[in-house]
Amino acid sequence: MRELKYDPPSYTIADYNMWEGQWELIDGIPYAMSPSPSQKHQWLAVLISAEMVAGLRLHKSDCGKCRVMTDIDWVINDTIVLRPDVAVVCDPLDTFITAPPVLIVEIASPSTALKDRKTKFDIYQTQGVTYYILADPATYSFTIFHLENGKYVEIQTTTFTIHNGCSITLDLSLILDELRNS
């Protein structure tokens, strides 16, 4: 019996830049972004972002140029481009993110849950994202990871050291209450 081999094409950032629509690129493989997220997903992203912006604003002198970004490409290398739901970035503004964000939040949905919990988890860990939060609007829960010695460890704290003495505290129970009551 003859073995058939399939070698799928591998794409780069040059290809990615020519595509229409919404995409992520992981190890040269394109992933079409789902249609616009649900209202619950969007509202959760807004609530988290607002809480983060308020935290950064409260500590403006320590937080410098750190800011909250939503739905922006992070070009990791020639074959990996991701679009976190929410990210805290402390590097200069650019067309896209070019260095690892300090904190990333991914909001799980049925179509992205596996990618968020495995593929992106591994990439964010490898790339040195200090904090990774998985938010699940279906179960009204957050799982928070902190990078320690190159590996993510689940933590319970909601205070995050962002940059040179800048830390923010997120009131996750307030966010969940507002999500439940909307």
Which terms summarize this structure?
12 strands, tt1808, chain A, six-stranded mixed beta sheet, 29% helix, two-stranded antiparallel sheet, 182 residues, alpha+beta
Explain what the structure shows.
- By secondary structure, the protein is an alpha+beta fold.
- The chain has one domain: tt1808, chain A (Alpha-Beta Complex).
- It contains 5 helices and 12 strands.
- Strands 3-6-7-8-9-10 form a 6-stranded mixed sheet, with helices on both faces. Strands 1-2 form a two-stranded antiparallel sheet. Strands 4-5 form a two-stranded antiparallel ribbon.
- Helix 2 packs antiparallel against helix 5.
- It is globular and about 60 Å long.
- The relative contact order is 0.15.
- The model has no long low-confidence stretch (mean pLDDT 89).
List the helices and strands and how they pair.
Elements: H1 13-16, E1 23-26, E2 29-32, H2 39-58, H3 60-63, E3 67-70, E4 74-77, E5 80-82, E6 86-89, E7 103-107, H4 113-127, E8 131-136, E9 141-148, E10 151-155, E11 159-163, E12 166-169, H5 172-180
Parallel strand pairs: 7-8
Antiparallel strand pairs: 1-2, 3-6, 4-5, 6-7, 8-9, 9-10, 11-12
Quickly describe the structure.
This protein is an alpha+beta fold and about 180 residues long. It contains 5 helices and 12 strands.
